[in-house]
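## Example record

The block below lists the input lines for one assembly entry, exactly as stored, with component labels intact.
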Amino acid sequence: MKRWLVRLYPRAWRQRYGEEFQAVLDQQVLTIRDVVDIVRGAGDAQRTAFAHAFRDHFMPTFLLTIRQRSRQLLLALVLVYSTGYGTARATEFLVHTTTNRYTPRSTHGIHALYTYEMYNPYPDMNPWEIAYWPLCMLESVTWMLVDSIYQPAA
Amino acid sequence: MHDLDQFGRFLEPALLILVSLAGGPKHGYAIMDDIAQVCQVRLGPGTLYGALTRLEDQGWIEALAADQRRRPYQLTDMGSRMLHQHLARVQQVTGIGFQRLGRV
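Predicted structure tokens for the full assembly:
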């Protein structure tokens, strides 16, 4: 039972404190309260170990990847956005020209941002705002380019 | 912010451990025993080692050579200074508290 309780702690912690902790447990008769206390302590040690691992290993790698790959990531973002947007607009254009009627905008994906803002009763609390403005700017630029190339017949 | 304030639920146990170690180096069970006798507070083993880990990480206590399976700890200079500062602050608050209670 006592060995099992020690095993609840992270491996690195056990390597450092395991033996002396086991010695402390061996010197007393554990009550239910002690067992609960040990389980809580093990949970705390697991959380701390996870936070340290995240800070020491994951975060530097993650930040380094973003920094090294910033151009590729930006390009991928623009490509993904423009491909999705282009496909949506092309479909809209095709439907419009073949059926001679406008299709309503989708309420899913990126277009939902517009709909969301339109019907949002709390505009100051719009969680999409941070994503919305760069997308708006990108859309304006895209449409300026499209309008300069494509001139529909009157 | 006072450094001990970052200890969360381990603040009080950490303070009791520092007070216990101010009397000389002790291993885990001896610290529990000392705190139980002096302060009438029984620390659970999980709480004791949660606080000990944090105190050692902060450099306020240090481990001495292990005696069989038991490892004694002692206060460092930094730990001693920290305990002194914290006790002075507690003393100041306690003094004001008693003074105000006296007026009531």
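The CA atoms of residues 96 and 102 of chain A lie 5 Å apart. Helices of chain A lie at 2-6, 11-26, 32-68, 70-99, 112-119, 129-149.
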